[in-house]
């Protein structure tokens, strides 16, 4: 056998191609040992010619390939087939690996006898990585497309795609169901044909958001109060968004419209809005809505000079009906009166129920003297109502208080005037009407309030106030003793006077801060030692707007707290919305400093005001007390149930616990427990009792 040494230099030059640097070109003898080595081989594999010549080329293979005999198998295959190409992992001198494309050809002598092998290798590591990345991207793209297709078919939102002209190109099953169009019918139609929008109230056509999206290249959204006309003629409340589809050059090639059927949600919103502004029993506007109507009427008065008549109406002997025939009979009577009042006034007038047996009327564009015939008809109609229950007849009549709204009026004053006049009518005898006159009503009102304010000052001086404690009970089995401390005033004869009889006067004549200080002094100083002996006791105290806005209150409270045996963690201060509304910034600062001592804060009567939720952004609270008017009818009113559930969920979201007020019976307790409300307060779990019943003897 002739060796490679018999080849002349010219042949060697052509075989080695030593000038090639991007490929490894080298020769092997018939046993596979390296006999030549070019610069490209050294660059690719890391061996110098001194290191590699004479060594078997199997050193370029991973160990598992060596063990499997792959190097010799490749040479054998090259001899058998005349040439062999292969790709695979190879090993460099430093142990690193690369992906190589290899060509092996036998070298034959002049007589055709194999004398060795020529081997060319190229490093394809980067190309392989790119190919793998491209293949992975293609797989991911297919998988993503499949997922999007499945998502599009399964989501509840309607999806409609259009081309750049606004013609439908595809839609999902949810869109088919909501529009009444099948996919096959819709494709090729203008989007307005398929997604037909109109105003909810007037059914006037509305511009489709896809058109704005295609025109501007930006996302577009529907405003509130828009309905989708379904192909069968019905309508759905919808909300939607349209987003442009951009080509790689930024041009708009179409749009995607995503929309939801919000009919149930809008229905609940309308019911909630109605319940907030209307009386649940009679469906008449409530006090809040009546005050809004008064404000609107006052604006018309100021702009046009038109005068209006405001009337308060109290039913006479209504308590007799309630006590004798029961609350169900009373409710029927109230609804009958509401229907009668609505029938006897004009459509432009307003009839409202303020609460209990109190109604209010605004007679538009007339003075009290002009309104008198209508009001007399109302009195006569109520008297003629002839209410009968269980074969028993109950005489019914009404007392009316009338006031005029003119350019000098304000809402609070005109309501007070009508109230004073109504009180005068009831005082004069049943079935009377009294028109407010400044000379009488104002003097009476002011005199009465001054008397009450004087009585409050005397009661503070004579220590004729006392504290009652009403339990606040956990619905989750927590037996920590919790109480709200309630203020009562003792009359000169020793009788207990409820807060409703003296708090209004205290608020009017700025006595609330004095009452707050009396309560705090009693709790933290005089009764503090006994209260502190009750294990884990938690006490809730009410804090008025006067105290929150009094610069001297905080130092007074902090000094009391520092000297008191009651720890700050045992105290919770209840703040009402009315306490915050006039000076939120000052009140918030005081609340934060109170919390900094370790005391807790509760937001009282939550939900009764339109601004309730906004206060949650102004300061942190530990408890939210759900307004009792939403709680007391929870077992009969789905709307009240929804409101209580919503307030409870929001409170928990912001980290506050909830307390339901007016839990008057076991049914209400069951409902609030089911909704997850944390605590209950009301007659079902405990009546207010003198604080002395809590105090252990020392």
3D architecture notes:
The structure is a single chain. The protein starts with 8 loop residues before the first helix and ends in an 8-residue tail after the last strand. A hairpin with a 5-residue loop joins strand 3 and strand 4. It has 698 residues and is α+β, with helices and mostly antiparallel strands. The strands form five sheets. Strands 19, 20, 21, 22, 23, 24, 25, 26, 27, 28 and 29 form an eleven-stranded mixed beta sheet that branches. Strands 5, 6, 7, 8, 9, 10 and 11 form a seven-stranded antiparallel beta sheet that branches. It is elongated, with a radius of gyration of 44 Å. It folds into four domains: 4-123, PAS domain (Beta-Lactamase, 2-Layer Sandwich); 155-261, Beta-Lactamase, CATH 3.30.450; 281-436, Alpha-Beta Plaits (2-Layer Sandwich), CATH 3.30.70; 451-693, TIM Barrel, CATH 3.20.20.450.
CATH class of the largest domain: Alpha Beta
Count the DSSP helices: 27
Mean pLDDT: 87
User: Helical content, roughly?
Assistant: 40-55%
Named CATH topology of the largest domain: TIM Barrel
Integer-rounded radius of gyration: 44 Å
Keywords:
single chain, 698 residues, alpha+beta, Beta-Lactamase, Alpha-Beta Plaits, 4 domains, seven-stranded antiparallel β-sheet, 29 strands
């Amino acid at each position: 056998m002739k060796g490679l040494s018999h080849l002349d230099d010219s042949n060697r030059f052509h075989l080695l191609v030593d000038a090639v640097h991007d490929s490894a070109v080298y020769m092997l003898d018939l046993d596979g040992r390296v006999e030549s080595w070019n610069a490209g081989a050294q660059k690719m594999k890391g061996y110098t010619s001194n290191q590699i010549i004479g060594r078997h080329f199997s050193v370029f293979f991973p160990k598992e390939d060596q063990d499997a005999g792959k190097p010799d198998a490749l040479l054998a295959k090259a001899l058998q087939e005349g040439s062999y190409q292969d790709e695979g992992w190879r090993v460099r001198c430093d142990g690193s690996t690369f992906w190589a494309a290899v060509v092996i050809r036998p070298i034959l002598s002049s007589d055709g006898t194999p004398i060795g092998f020529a081997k060319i290798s190229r490093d394809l590591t980067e190309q392989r990585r790119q190919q793998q990345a491209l293949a992975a991207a293609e797989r991911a793209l297919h998988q993503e497309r499949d997922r999007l297709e499945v998502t599009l078919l399964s989501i509840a939102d309607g999806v409609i795609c259009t081309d750049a002209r606004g013609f439908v190109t595809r839609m999902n099953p949810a869109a088919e169901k909501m529009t009444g169009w099948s996919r096959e019918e819709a494709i090729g139609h203008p989007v307005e044909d398929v997604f037909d929008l109109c105003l909810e109230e007037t059914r006037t056509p509305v511009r489709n958001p896809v058109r704005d999206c295609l025109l501007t290249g930006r996302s577009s959204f529907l405003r509130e109060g828009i309905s989708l006309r379904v192909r069968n003629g019905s309508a759905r409340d919808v909300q939607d968004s349209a987003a442009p589809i951009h080509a790689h050059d930024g041009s708009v090639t179409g749009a995607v419209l995503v929309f939801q059927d919000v009919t149930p949600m809008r229905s609940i919103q309308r019911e909630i809005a109605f319940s907030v502004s209307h009386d649940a029993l009679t469906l008449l506007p409530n006090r809040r809505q009546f005050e809004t109507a008064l404000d609107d009427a006052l604006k018309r008065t100021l702009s046009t000079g038109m005068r209006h008549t405001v009337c308060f109406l109290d039913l006479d002997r209504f308590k007799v009906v309630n006590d004798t025939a029961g609350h169900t009979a009373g409710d029927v009577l109230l609804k009958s009166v509401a229907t009668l009042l609505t029938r006897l006034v004009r459509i432009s007038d307003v009839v409202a129920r303020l609460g209990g047996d109190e109604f209010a009327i605004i007679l538009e564009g007339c003075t009290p003297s002009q309104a008198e015939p209508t009001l007399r008809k109302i009195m006569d109609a109520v008297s003629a109502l002839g209410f009968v229950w269980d074969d028993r007849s109950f005489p019914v009549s009404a007392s009316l208080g009338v006031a005029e709204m003119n350019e000098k009026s304000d809402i609070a004053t005109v309501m007070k005037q009508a109230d004073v006049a109504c009180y005068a009518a009831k005082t004069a005898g049943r079935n009377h009407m009294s028109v407010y006159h400044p000379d009488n009503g104002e003097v009476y009102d002011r005199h009465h309030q001054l008397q009450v304010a004087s009585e409050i000052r005397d009661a503070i001086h004579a220590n004729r106030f006392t504290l009652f404690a009403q339990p606040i009970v956990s619905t989750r089995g927590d037996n920590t003793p919790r109480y709200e401390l309630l203020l009562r005033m003792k009359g000169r004869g020793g009788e207990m006077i409820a807060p409703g009889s003296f708090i209004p006067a205290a608020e009017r004549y700025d006595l609330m801060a004095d009452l707050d200080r009396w309560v705090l002094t009693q709790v933290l100083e005089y009764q503090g030692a006994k209260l502190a002996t009750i294990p884990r006791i938690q006490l809730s105290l009410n804090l008025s707007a006067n105290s929150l806005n009094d610069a001297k209150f905080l130092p007074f409270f902090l000094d009391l707290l520092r000297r008191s045996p009651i720890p700050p963690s045992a105290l919770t201060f209840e703040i009402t919305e009315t306490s915050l509304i006039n000076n939120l910034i000052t009140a918030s600062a005081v609340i934060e400093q109170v919390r900094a001592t370790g005391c807790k804060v509760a937001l009282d009567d939550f939900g009764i005001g339109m601004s309730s939720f906004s206060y949650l952004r102004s300061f942190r609270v530990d408890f939210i007390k759900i307004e009792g008017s939403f709680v007391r009818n929870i077992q009969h009113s789905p709307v009240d149930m929804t409101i209580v559930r919503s307030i409870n969920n929001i409170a928990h979201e912001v980290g506050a616990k909830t307390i339901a007020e007016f839990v008057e019976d076991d049914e209400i307790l069951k409902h609030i427990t089911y909704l997850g409300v944390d605590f209950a307060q009301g007659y079902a779990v405990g009546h207010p009792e003198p604080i002395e019943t809590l105090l252990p003897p020392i």
